[in-house]
Amino acid sequence: MISQDYQIELRHYRYFLAVAEELHFRKAAEKLFISQPGLSTQIKQMEELLGVELFTRNKKKVQLTAAGEYLKEEAEFILNHLQQTRKQTMLIGSGALGEIRIGFLGSAMQNVVPDLLVRLQQKYPDIHTSLEELSNQAQLNLLLKDKLDLAFVRVGRMPTGLERRTVVEDTFSLVLPEDYPLEAQNFKRMSRVQDENFILFSKEYSPEYFNTVMGICEDAGFTPKVNHKSVHALTIFRLVEKGMGLAIIPTSLTHGFDMKVKFIELKKIEQRALLSVAWKKDNRNPVLQHCLNLLLKE
């Protein structure tokens, strides 16, 4: 029986998370720079203090119990929140207002994110910013875990607990090699390119975009032959330039590239590329509202 003088401390959560992530005591101990017996003792102590088993162990593998799975999610949240609180406290103590952590898709960096950064710098120069380009799902996951404050995404559905507002409603454009025998003035319908290969953004990167583009083609009476997929506009343009296929992208992505490709804006189709800003409803970052006010002009 463990003494009542003991209590769960932050180190227990750190040790627990290392084992929960590695599912291997030796690897977790190496990661923590402590001995394996010492780590095992700390985990056993934590289990006794909680009165539950967090791992099932045998000679072949280590697995999380149902209680361990729950604690893993909560411990990640707790430690991340403490780390961010410490960082914000230090920034505020040094005279800054705090930090805003922004995730974005590449297309948001054309105008929306740079414009926000300029306005922040002008009105709130003491707000620090950090930026990270990520897929839609990765951004939503990090919002839920309080590891991002703002996310610029293209999604159809928003997880419970998150808010969003549309910030850009964009058309789509067809991307063709520079010497492709088709121009905007003689382009009438998408069926003109139904026999071509297509290069799309990966469905895993942006399911909403992928499904919308498939819908554009299907509305024209064909299912596109997808030859390549990528998560980067530059890669897609390079493949189009080399004659590997055509692409359909949000029109905002047609600017800022000097490549041997051309664009035909698809003005007559009903589909639009919607870019939204998302945030967690109960986010406690003191500078989040300043950013939202600038972005949404409230």
Automatic annotation (TrEMBL):
UniProt xrefs under Gene3D superfamilies: Periplasmic binding protein-like II, Winged helix-like DNA-binding domain superfamily/Winged helix DNA-binding domain
Protein name: LysR family transcriptional regulator
Coiled-coil residues: none
Pfam family, one: HTH_1
Top-rank lineage group of the source organism: Bacteria
Family: Belongs to the LysR transcriptional regulatory family.
Domain named HTH lysR-type: residues: 8-65
UniProtKB keywords: DNA-binding, Transcription, Transcription regulation
